[in-house]
Design a protein that fits this description.
The chain has 252 residues and is an alpha/beta fold. Helix content is 19%, strand content 24%. The radius of gyration is 17 Å and the shape is globular.
């Protein structure tokens, strides 16, 4: 069992969870996600997750699971219709910053929810939670890894053949786009533990395959990529980090 590293803070108040009043308003129409690859879609930034980006990855070779929803997109009619058409699927949460309206999505879709065990207790009213500890293989070619730092339960998902037959890493806010083709760890006042974050990145570099480049799909704001959605080589991004300079980085 991994030691709990975060105080108990629910995404909903007990009163809201009991009454469901937080969802009493009619859903906005919204707009569906845009297709990035043949098997990959990117949702519009979600204000419920501080402008975070959610993804839909098709998994045709995974029997019983049509795809993975990585973090929560905005709760609207277009997104729900898109997901209903493509299910059954699974929701994978990369951190508490990606929880958004997890309870409502799970109620609507009845999909299981994978997340790191540090943050499962933040969703006490959500059915279908499947927490993991350090690492977990969801299915052949789909692996989760605990990467604490941005939040105690931050995690990444590695899909071995998702990027045109090559690996693709969904990293949540572990790495944020800072310019076209570039991503870095960005410390904020909400960050959990900066030194632990940097250790997670060092360990991630050892965990990723070395025989082929791994593309990166960040869950942070993607505006810095100037219209692009993915970064081609995460190993290159990690090798370019100045660890000594990062140690002294102040929160932004």
């Amino acid at each position: 069992m991994v030691e709990r590293l975060w105080p108990v803070v629910s995404e909903e108040s007990p009163q809201q969870a009991a009454s469901g009043s937080v969802f009493a308003e009619p859903l906005p129409e919204g707009r569906p996600p845009r297709q990035v690859l043949e098997n990959l879609w990117l949702f519009a930034p979600n204000r419920d997750t501080l402008g975070g980006s959610a993804w839909w990855l098709e998994t045709p070779e995974w029997e019983g699971c049509a795809g993975l929803l990585i973090d929560c997109p905005g709760l609207n009619q277009a997104n729900l219709a898109f997901l209903r058409e493509r299910g059954p699927g699974r929701l994978v949460l990369t951190s508490r910053d990606g929880h958004g309206r997890t309870r409502r999505f799970q109620e609507e879709l009845q999909w299981p929810v994978s997340l790191q065990e540090q943050e499962a207790y933040l969703l006490p009213t959500v059915d279908g939670l499947e927490p993991f500890s350090s690492e977990q293989s969801l299915a052949p070619g789909y692996s989760l890894r605990w990467t604490p730092g941005p939040t105690p339960g931050s995690a990444v998902l590695l899909a071995d053949r998702a990027f045109n037959g090559a690996p693709l890493l969904f990293c949540g806010r572990l790495l944020s786009p800072v310019a076209s083709g570039e991503a870095r760890p960005l410390r904020t006042r909400r960050s959990f533990h900066w030194s632990r974050w940097l250790r997670s990145l060092e360990a991630l570099g050892d965990w990723l395959p070395r025989s082929t480049p791994v593309a990166l799909a960040s869950g942070a704001g993607l505006g810095a990529l100037r219209g692009e959605a993915l970064i081609a080589d995460v190993q290159q991004q990690l090798q370019a980090l100045d660890w000594a300079a990062l140690e002294g980085q102040e929160p932004v």
